[in-house]
UniProtKB/TrEMBL annotation, chain A:
Reported cofactor(s): [4Fe-4S] cluster
GO MF annotations in UniProt: 4 iron, 4 sulfur cluster binding; glycolate dehydrogenase activity; metal ion binding
EC number: 1.1.99.14
Pfam families to which the protein is assigned, alphabetical: CCG (PF02754), Fer4_8 (PF13183)
PANTHER family: GLYCOLATE OXIDASE IRON-SULFUR SUBUNIT
Designated name of the protein: Glycolate oxidase iron-sulfur subunit
Keywords annotated in UniProt: 4Fe-4S, Electron transport, Iron, Iron-sulfur, Metal-binding, Repeat, Transport
Co-factor note (free text): Binds 2 [4Fe-4S] clusters.
Residue stretches making up the 4Fe-4S ferredoxin-type domain: 17-47, 68-99
Taxonomic lineage: Bacteria, Pseudomonadati, Thermomicrobiota, Thermomicrobia, Thermomicrobiales
From TrEMBL, chain B:
Pfam families assigned: FAD-oxidase_C, FAD_binding_4
Statement: the UniProt record of this protein carries the keyword Transmembrane: no
Annotated organism of origin: Thermalbibacter longus
Named cofactor requirement(s): FAD
GO molecular function, one term: oxidoreductase activity
PANTHER family, per the entry: GLYCOLATE OXIDASE SUBUNIT GLCD
Protein name: FAD-binding protein
Key words, A-Z: FAD, Flavoprotein, Oxidoreductase
Domain FAD-binding PCMH-type: 40-218
Listed InterPro entries: FAD-bd_oxidored_4_C (IPR004113), FAD-bd_PCMH (IPR016166), FAD-bd_PCMH-like_sf (IPR036318), FAD-bd_PCMH_sub2 (IPR016169), FAD-linked_Oxase-like_C (IPR016164), FAD-linked_OxidoTrans_Type4 (IPR051914), Oxid_FAD_bind_N (IPR006094), Vanillyl_alc_oxidase_C-sub2 (IPR016171)
SUPFAM superfamilies in UniProt: FAD-binding/transporter-associated domain-like, FAD-linked oxidases, C-terminal domain
UniProtKB/TrEMBL annotation, chain C:
Lineage, broadest ranks: Bacteria, Pseudomonadati, Thermomicrobiota, Thermomicrobia, Thermomicrobiales
Domain of life: Bacteria
Keyword entries, A-Z: FAD, Flavoprotein, Oxidoreductase
Provenance organism: Thermalbibacter longus
InterPro entries: FAD-bd_oxidored_4_C, FAD-bd_PCMH, FAD-bd_PCMH-like_sf, FAD-bd_PCMH_sub2, FAD-linked_Oxase-like_C, Oxid_FAD_bind_N, Vanillyl_alc_oxidase_C-sub2
PANTHER family membership: D-LACTATE DEHYDROGENASE, GLYCOLATE OXIDASE SUBUNIT GLCE
GO MF terms, alphabetically ordered: FAD binding; oxidoreductase activity
Pfam families named in the record: FAD-oxidase_C, FAD_binding_4
UniProt-listed SUPFAM superfamilies: FAD-binding/transporter-associated domain-like, FAD-linked oxidases, C-terminal domain
FAD-binding PCMH-type domain boundaries: 28-208
Protein's name according to its UniProt entry: FAD-binding oxidoreductase
Entry cofactors: FAD
Keyword Flavoprotein: yes
Length: 448, 486, 433
């Protein structure tokens, strides 16, 4: 005879950022998430599936598995947090949330090595804690790349010695110019349709400064004032995903302070990962009396650039761009933000551009923030799979919308000796505008 | 059982990547998609993930040698606990055997490994003008091998028939370790129809290693209609009216208010949220016939009080409507942390009174029951929602579902229309079968698996043994012969 | 008591359990039984079986006797159980489209009852007034309409059968979708009554189409005819049966057309049938010598005749072989069959069920040796071959079910379980089970 159980005591999880048990048990283990999970597709093992991971969390909560079981940590870090599972989950299990909480639990309760602590301190506090320091570090990197030091390091084998060979390969080419949130203001061209703030972020402002510039051009061309409001910082995603929600919350408060102005219509993000994070501030700050409400108001205004343009429609007609492209969906755009139709609609709005869909376009490329540094083996398996699918389309360029994916794809293409470029979707749009006759009156064009 | 020796031998067969023996990792093989309250947790001793039929054969031979139970498993999306290793032993997970080996367009069949995902087979064959007709709601995740084991249904089975009607042949490893092909691309293979017997046997008679499936030609035209009604009763009447009119829709599905709400929250499929019930009706075939039938169906629905009838105009609209329907079970997690699936089939004409009874029982037991089902063939799915942490609720769920089952059996229905008996429903088997019926089935089982190592404790009621039946028969015989038995 | 006395005692008791019939009318491959009894209730049948089982009587369940050509030579034949008194239509629910019928009910009786409610079972046999439902299921015979509606196997939703032990067991039920327990229906379908005696069968029935037409097209060359038939099969058109007949076969079903004839059946609502027939005609016309469309009764009559030329009834000095092959390979098979009779004085007619993948070859000759040689050659063709009917002399030293299938060991185990004393149709089924 089955009898009602006592409400389970949360045995294994304790302290702050405990994965919510009601979220864990909203999983009815139907298995719909299995085929969309990149790690499950590669390993075929239940433990590497969202359903399996949730069951492990549940087993910890019910006291049947130890939080510090190496199996658990291994799975929590093997997960890419791509959230493809969330997009197909009929029960609406907030997987990302309990995964991040589980990671925070591990950071809290697991003894950390000195190296890990140093890595976390340098990465999360020093580098990402302040954008001025981040840019200074980037200047050093640029020096390393351009001065011949890199060539020397690569030849000498010292990188291999330091175990940094892989990291070096993934390192972005640092741009000559940075885009800085310095209070610059770019007025709308033509009829003004609104005012937006651009979220600058970290790597987008340094390695992808040209994408920011393109974003400003496309937005102003479509009738929006664009402001680069000072005081903003890192989105905090790397902290939260890495099990350090507290530092994430610091970044969140700072961004809300800086960008929470009632005078802007939208906060525009062109990095899918940052956008997803910004939209999740209400959950991150749910227990913060002062910020909970402000976070909700703030997040309601956050829009990915693609989402925003599709929602408001293009007021200027792009020019022809005769090329064949394929689209790689950033997980945090497609799954976390459920933005899948809009990018295609924008691409289809460009005359003469041909979009060829790749197989498994929504399967993670293996970048996943700093995942490719932490789990290089799985990351490169997924990258290979992604590149095979992308190259099979015969496209002349791979279009994406997130710096992590773009870095990953570029590194992979370089290693294969492929010359095809990886472009941000807004860059493609910018090029199409460059091809449009400037004198032609802007035509209203509905998109999305 | 010499576990160590078994592990070592298995390791030699499948390699280190194909064996899981860490008790902690085995935790994730103690469940399937059935509710744990009723199915329980069953951890296998060892899980293996073979990649070839040869490996499966070796595993089975080894299980025989060691006398340990073997439980086959696909994606673990079953709702009756059939893929749980109730007596421990070896769990054979077939998901890595997922190659499509042949697609024969000219004769319309394919040979696939059992780990191929149902929907992926249809997606693969669609550009060639074919699909695999059985489409259980879990088709995005479930495997063809699992479909074979459960004789899976799905919405389109109304017109196209269940899995059994689409399996031409099987390569199977029998419990004695022999590997054979049954059936083939031409019908009427001589001898006993082993293919037909194996389909739906829930992994108790062997492990399928290749499946030859019939592919169905894509219809020339498809039309999906959504009809909204004030209540389940009028929707049920519309169902009867459509079937009685001689129109055979490809699918005829019903969803009640509770389900509509859950599904809308999940996918914004565009169901009218204020409706008491909706019918999702798909018509397919030759263009002219579909158009004609669609007009007639709209008429019939209106005649039964439909408040709104909508036609999906674009493939995307169609897809959304189906996505909502097919995700309905999973969406129950939005309504309650647990649900118990009842899977009875009743004669179609008994649908309206059955729905009334389900409603009454819902009130009587103070349990919310969501209804989403294959109305066209009378296959109900009352989903009894509960929270296992609310004291007393589990008992009420048990009593309520037993009452529903008993009612359905009383009006001529059966226990399970498509999800199988497995572990969860085996103790209800005596509601519809006599000991003699079950004995014949047990005879079938023993003919394949005399040592009862294959997926033990499934399908048959717990504690069932044919020994008792023999005693009963002897007594009957004695009576006829006028002998007194002591 | 001697064995013989035991046997006689059992026969005497059995004789009281049903109406006695004249044994001469129950001949199987030259053997006649000592006793024929026709029980009028399942209980009587159970008792007969249990007595026969104890005494080890070689027993043949008997329906209409119209398909008795099928089966290996019986090892012995003591008792025939005539099931025609078990002929009730037990339960018919027109609105549910289900029917439960006893095994001895004829196809004709059931058809009339269903027809009155605009419903049907989609099988056609000219012997419908004698052929029993139980016999059809036991022999596993279905016509070319299986392409559109599925074989009888696919419409079976429930079964009741009696075992030699006297036990009465059921499987399935009265609903159209059911996965409760094993599929006992398929266990018995085509098992030639070797695992139990079928007592009752439950079917899902089909709404009778309101109209039907048959497109008939004649071709000089087999390749053209086959191409036309396969083209329709490959298209999105939905005929319910597609057959290809050689000239002799066509003549046999009343079609006076030379060369090869393709017949395609369209069923459904009147206007839809008309349009479908038109579209099919267009597809098959280009290489055809002649295209005709048969309507209503004329169409129906044709298919009943076709049913007659695929059955397993006794044919006198002829054999009929059923060979399974994929539809696209059937035309080549037809040619191979023609070549196989080289050197034998045999008359050959061929009917190809292009929809399903079966070929029926009927060969007539004066001498058993010629027929035997023909069967030997044909039994190696295609994917599988069954000698549906033949004079007893031809059946000596061969298995009419052709090559031994891989699953024969399991089939033996099943026989051992359900009929351990081997009283049911001993020797007649595959592998001489």
């Amino acid at each position: 005879m089955v009898v009602a159980e006592e409400r389970a005591v949360l045995h294994g999880f304790k302290g702050h950022d405990v994965p919510e048990f009601d979220v864990i048990r909203s999983c009815v283990h139907c298995g719909f998430c299995l085929p969309v999970c990149p790690t499950y597709r590669v390993t075929g093992r239940e433990r590497s599936s969202p359903r399996g991971r949730i069951w492990l969390m549940k087993s910890i909560a019910e006291g049947r598995l130890d939080l510090l079981d190496p199996l658990f940590e291994d799975e929590m870090t093997l997960c890419l947090n791509c959230r493809a599972c969330e997009a197909v989950c009929p029960s609406g299990v907030r997987y990302g949330e309990i995964l991040e909480a589980s990671r925070a639990q591990l950071v809290q309760h697991r003894p950390q090595t000195a190296k890990e602590r140093l890595f976390r301190f340098l990465g999360f506090q020093v580098l990402l804690g302040d954008m001025r320091r981040f840019r200074a570090a980037n200047r050093l990197l640029r020096l390393y790349q351009r001065s011949g030091l890199r060539a020397l390091a690569r030849r000498s084998g010292i990188l291999r010695l330091l175990g940094m060979e892989h990291a070096d390969r993934l390192m972005p080419e640092i741009s000559d110019r940075f885009v800085v949130a310095d209070g610059s203001f770019y007025p709308a061209l033509g009829e003004r349709r609104g005012r937006v703030a651009l979220f600058v972020g970290c790597v987008m402002g340094t390695s992808y400064a040209h994408v920011h510039e393109a974003t400003v051009r496309v937005l102003t061309r479509n009738g929006f004032d664009v402001a680069l409001i000072p005081g903003q910082g890192c989105c905090g995603a790397l902290h939260v995903h890495g099990g350090d929600p507290e530092s994430g919350r610091r970044q969140a408060r700072r961004n809300i302070d800086a960008l929470g102005s009632p005078y802007i219509d939208a906060v525009i993000v062109n990095a899918a990962g940052c956008g997803a994070m910004l939209k999740e501030y209400p959950h991150l700050l749910r227990d913060d009396h002062d910020y909970a409400e402000r976070a909700r108001a703030f997040s309601a205004k956050v829009r990915d650039a693609i989402e925003f343009l599709a929602e408001r429609g293009l007021s200027a007609q792009p020019g022809p761009l005769p090329m064949t492209v394929t689209y790689q969906e950033p997980c945090h755009l497609a799954h976390a933000q459920r933005i899948t139709r809009q990018p295609r609609a924008l691409l289809e709005a460009i005359p003469e551009l041909k979009l060829v869909e790749m197989a498994e376009s929504a399967l993670c490329c293996g970048s996943a923030g700093i995942y490719n540094l932490l789990r290089p083996e799985m990351a490169s398996t997924l990258l290979d799979r992604k590149l095979n699918n992308a190259l099979a389309t015969g496209a002349e360029a791979i279009v994406s919308a997130n710096p992590g994916c773009m870095l990953q794809l570029q590194a992979g293409l370089r290693a294969r000796g492929e010359r095809i470029p990886v472009l941000h979707l807004i860059e493609v749009l910018d090029r199409a505008y460059a091809a449009a006759p400037a004198t032609r009156p802007a035509e209203a064009l509905a998109a999305g | 059982m010499d576990r160590q020796a078994l592990q070592e031998r298995l390791l030699r067969i499948v390699g280190p990547d194909g064996i899981i023996d860490d008790p902690d990792e085995l935790l994730v093989y103690e469940y399937d998609a059935s509710d744990e309250v009723f199915a329980g947790h069953h951890r296998p001793d060892i899980t293996v993930l073979p990649r070839t039929a040869d490996q499966v054969q070796e595993i089975v031979k080894l299980a025989n040698e060691f006398g340990v139970p073997v439980t086959p498993r696909g994606a673990g999306t079953g709702l009756a606990g059939a893929a749980l290793a109730v007596r421990g032993g070896i769990l054979v997970v077939m998901t890595r055997m997922n190659r499509v080996l042949e697609i024969n367009e000219r004769d319309g069949y394919a040979i696939v490994e059992p780990g191929v995902i149902n929907l992926e087979l249809s997606q693969l064959t669609q550009p060639r003008g074919y699909f695999f007709a059985p489409d259980p709601s879990s088709q995005r995740a479930c495997t063809i091998g699992g479909n074979v084991a459960n004789n899976s249904g799905g919405p389109h089975c109304l017109k196209y028939g269940v899995t059994s009607n689409h399996i031409l042949g099987l390569e199977v490893v029998l419990p004695n370790g022999e590997r054979i092909w049954t059936g083939g691309p031409a019908p009427e293979s001589p001898g006993i129809d082993l293919t037909g017997v194996l389909v739906g046997s829930e992994g108790t008679l062997g492990i399928v290693t290749k499946v030859m499936v019939r592919l169905t030609r894509l219809p020339e035209a498809v039309n999906v209609l959504l009809a909204a009604f004030a209540d389940l009763e009028s929707a049920s009447q519309a169902t009867s009216a459509i079937i009685a009119s001689g129109i055979l829709p490809a699918a005829l599905e019903m969803m009640d208010h509770l389900t509509i709400k859950a599904v809308e929250a999940a996918f914004h499929a565009g169901y009218p949220e204020d409706a008491g019930a909706v019918l999702l009706i798909e018509l397919d075939g030759l263009a002219e016939i579909v158009a004609e039938s669609a007009d007639r169906v709209v008429e019939l629905c209106r005649g039964c009080g439909a408040t709104e009838v909508r036609v999906a105009r674009t493939p995307r609209e169609r897809e959304l409507l189906w996505l909502g329907r097919k995700s309905a079970f999973g969406a129950m997690g939005r309504l309650a942390p647990n649900y118990y699936l009842v899977d009875t089939t009743v004669p179609r004409t008994k649908l309206p009174p059955t729905m009334r009874t389900v409603e009454e029982l819902s009130r009587e037991y103070r349990l919310r029951i969501a209804n989403v089902f294959h109305a066209g063939d009378g296959n109900l799915h009352p989903l009894v929602l509960f929270d296992r942490f609310v004291p007393g609720e589990i008992e009420r769920v048990l009593r309520c579902t037993t009452d529903i089952l008993q009612y359905c059996v009383d009006v001529g229905g059966t226990l399970s229309g498509e999800h199988g008996i497995g572990l969860e429903k085996r103790d209800y088997m005596t509601l519809i079968f006599t000991t003699e019926d079950l004995c014949a089935m047990a005879g079938l089982k023993r003919s394949f698996d005399p040592r009862e190592l294959f997926n033990p404790d499934k399908v048959f009621p717990s504690g069932f043994s044919c020994g008792e039946v023999n005693a009963i028969r002897q007594q009957a015989m004695a009576k006829r012969l006028g002998i007194e038995f002591v | 008591m001697s064995d013989r006395a035991v046997l006689q005692q059992a026969l005497d008791r059995i004789a009281t359990l049903g109406a006695r019939q004249e044994p001469a009318a129950y001949e199987v491959d030259g053997l006649t039984p000592q006793l024929v009894v026709a029980p009028d209730s399942p209980a009587a049948l159970q008792e007969i079986l249990s007595l026969a089982n104890e005494a080890g009587l070689a027993t043949v369940p008997w329906g209409g006797g119209t398909q008795m050509g099928l089966g290996n030579l019986p090892r012995a034949f003591d008792l025939a159980i005539d099931l025609r008194k078990l002929n009730a239509i037990v339960q018919y629910e027109p609105d549910d489209l289900t029917v439960a019928v006893q095994a001895g009910c004829t196809l004709g009786e059931l058809g009339a009852k269903l027809g009155a409610h605009g419903q049907m079972l989609p099988v056609d046999f000219p012997t419908a007034d004698r052929t029993t439902i139980g016999g059809l299921v036991a022999t596993g015979l279905s016509g070319p309409r299986r392409y559109g509606y599925g074989a009888l196997r696919d419409l079976l939703i429930g079964i009741t059968f009696a075992l030699p032990s006297g036990q009465l067991s059921r499987g399935g039920g009265m609903v159209v979708k059911n996965v409760s327990g094993y599929d006992m229906m398929r266990l018995h379908y085509g098992a030639l009554g070797s695992l139990g005696v079928i007592v009752q069968l439950n079917f899902k029935v089909i709404p009778k189409p309101r109209a039907e037409r048959t497109v008939v097209a004649a071709y000089r060359r087999l390749s053209d005819a086959a191409e036309a038939a396969l083209q329709v099969r490959f298209s999105q058109l939905a005929p319910t049966a597609i057959v290809l007949l050689d000239a002799l076969s066509a003549q046999g079903v009343g079609l006076e057309m030379p060369g090869w004839v393709v017949s395609l059946r369209c069923e459904g609502p009147a206007t839809a049938v008309q349009r479908q027939a038109d579209r099919i005609s267009e597809v098959v016309r280009p290489a055809a010598d002649r295209v005709e469309v048969l309507e209503g009764h004329e169409s129906e009559r044709l298919w009943t005749e076709v049913g007659g030329s695929i059955g397993a009834g006794r044919l006198g000095r002829a054999i009929r072989v059923r060979i399974g092959q994929t539809p696209s390979e059937l035309p080549r098979l037809a040619e191979e069959i023609d070549r196989a009779r080289t050197g034998l004085v045999v008359e050959l007619s061929r009917l190809l069920d292009i929809g399903s993948g079966l070929c029926y070859a009927t060969l007539a000759a004066e001498r058993d040796e010629d027929l035997q040689l023909a069967w030997q050659r044909l039994s190696g063709l295609g994917l599988h071959a069954t000698l549906l009917t033949a004079p007893p002399g031809v059946k000596v030293d061969t298995d009419v079910f052709g090559r031994q299938p891989a699953g024969l060991a399991v089939m033996r185990a099943l026989k051992e379980t359900f009929d351990p004393n081997r009283i049911l149709n001993p020797g007649r089924f595959i592998g001489r089970l």
